[in-house]
Amino acid sequence: MDEHAKIEELGKPRVVIVGGGFGGLELAKALRHVNVQVVLIDKQNYHTFQPLLYQVATAGLDADDIVSPFRKILEDQGNVFFRMAEVQSVDTEAQVVKTSIGLVKYDYLVIATGATTNYFGDQEMAKNSVAIKSVEDAIMLRNTVLNNFEKALQVEDPVERNSLLDFVIVGGGPTGVEVAGALSELRKHVFPKDYRELDFKEMDIHLIQSGPTLLKGMSPEASQKALEFLQNFGVDVMLDCRVKSYDGYTVTLNTGQTLITRTLIWAAGVSGAPIEGIRKESILKGNRYQVDEHNRITGYNNVFAIGDIAAMVTSEYPEGHPMVAQPAIQQGKLLAKNIGNLLCQRALDTFHYDDKGAMATIGRNHAVADVKLFHKEFRTQGFLAWLMWTFVHVISLVSFRNRLAVFISWTWSYFSLDKGLRFIIGNKREPIPVEETAPKELV
Amino acid sequence: MDEHAKIEELGKPRVVIVGGGFGGLELAKALRHVNVQVVLIDKQNYHTFQPLLYQVATAGLDADDIVSPFRKILEDQGNVFFRMAEVQSVDTEAQVVKTSIGLVKYDYLVIATGATTNYFGDQEMAKNSVAIKSVEDAIMLRNTVLNNFEKALQVEDPVERNSLLDFVIVGGGPTGVEVAGALSELRKHVFPKDYRELDFKEMDIHLIQSGPTLLKGMSPEASQKALEFLQNFGVDVMLDCRVKSYDGYTVTLNTGQTLITRTLIWAAGVSGAPIEGIRKESILKGNRYQVDEHNRITGYNNVFAIGDIAAMVTSEYPEGHPMVAQPAIQQGKLLAKNIGNLLCQRALDTFHYDDKGAMATIGRNHAVADVKLFHKEFRTQGFLAWLMWTFVHVISLVSFRNRLAVFISWTWSYFSLDKGLRFIIGNKREPIPVEETAPKELV
Description:
By secondary structure, chain A is of the alpha/beta class.
């Protein structure tokens, strides 16, 4: 960039966006034709397509299929500057964001930090369980699963071996249901070929849901069919059940029953990820910022929040919008328009959520979908829902490169019944050591 | 596997292969129809296609494109058992291999542990430089390069900034040449779009070669053209030059000249990776095992070595065969046949290396090749060599899945001039901190 262009950029009002998830990225892109300078800050240098993280965790896709570097996505957009940094705090008086690499002044601040795993204060659970909120999480889960099976080959005690082969998934929302389904597919089609010496009748998959139905928030038909599909796939779904404790080995349920596993996958909830320096009075239940119908955080003029971190309380959504991609994307798009309105001193537009419905896949040919088309709700379960789910996820990926990669990977898996990405690269969680025995003769 | 089949397997002589590189994997596959039980031990659960590691390091391919899980490759072969373990030592009296997961008895032992980076005893270099011998190395190098550029955006001092932008590559063999070429392509086509605020005229790539030519062992035409191509791409090639020391920041050359870089890529040599317990008398220069013309380690009846770790001294190859894929593959194939011969008490076949030539790519449309076809040598440089290099590497990949992935990725890159895999996932090498300054205003 030449000096002239640089100075011109510096003269514009600056919008600082913290977080490049669905909301932050959409906002940055939608500000293309608004006369502002945009600084997008994220601790990663890539955008993650979170709805498919569970596929990375279960060897169906590789991480590179679902992430896109921010610099690549935004390379043609001259008014955006990306910075890889952790945001430490905000000073709303001085209008400055403090980051790991320095200070950033802003005229408009948009918090789009999304949500983080919610352990409801259970430190032991946070330490011993695995989550699927980031690419690093998903890779670690994949490595852990494969590593456990390698270890199971050397264990003769059946209880010890089961602790490596069994899985407990806590949370019956989309992530929990999708992981349980994917693990059951691996158990059926993939692992028995890889580990001929293990008996996969020994591998149990437990899905624990605190409420009476799976996929809370979807239609009763969707919840019911998801349950049926999972049970047909041999998943032990435990409804109205809660985990009391987990020490890395024994899961104790509220019924007093115990399960033994070295891998508990925690998909039971998320909460907002607020930033130091924003007034505490604006934080609602679930650590989300209370925002008005223009996504402005209450108590501020020029500080906004969008996506999972924002709770816009309306009569239709008394707890804020669902913490999924669509509200974030729609809020990002509208906020770009409203920042334009602010600059021209026009009245601001009000956010109306266009709910397109919800979907979850359980496995090959099996999904459930509640779709809103032309203001009519359309509910379907099974193959058609699975086709829709597949189509929507492929076209929603950020880059053409990712779309192509996922399409090819899925087509391949569909016909070969294989999931090809079964390698252990990077971090894994070493299980609590199996009781020490004398070196064991192999095979 | 049922009990009957299990007992039958256990009654067969057991071949234990340590290492699943080109040689070990080929041997395991070629033993399919030999009446033995095979135990393949590797510390990773996947085979790595090492010739393309440099592409992973330079964001041209993702790791999943060039690795294949052993269990997948060998899933149809009933007589192979894979174990993910580190080999600690061998007891050739008791015929037992000691591993991180227990003891393994053998009737025939084959060491195929390959080679490791050779720092020629320079501990400081081993600590401060980066290598490209494993997938984890390659990913770390990629993450380090990208991370350095992110940091360079925040640095005002030109020397400090240059230390993050400049690269020194030591070693003018195929890896050094290929990395230098790939970095120069990134500098030309990719990074300027990603980092508009940096001036890539500041990014220097130095390639240091101790001898008078690049690609030692290839034809003079190949060496000369490789030099020309690299110079045309703006790589500073320093021939007859050695590195005296590197403290993580300053590279001191034997000429007294110094270069400043936080990233020195060490591609200057490899040496064998011998195992504790094999007689030291059989170790030759470069830590390779002296083997006879049947790949039997001198001094043993039933212990073999193949590939990089084996030095079969002949009049044509007084220092053993080149440490590349082809000798390993050919030795693996012949050894399978010879193990069959041993079992039937037939005479053993003698190894003759079928040299198919050598190739190296410098960048888009530019490669050099010395190919042997029908015992005639054929030398070419430029576009045709590049086409041959591309074709040979795609078809040599282990699985159809990898071939398809690499083909698509390369086709994409060729037409888009893009290298898509520019994300920082997993370990990176944090540079020695830039001198602490007051928090700096961004942009």
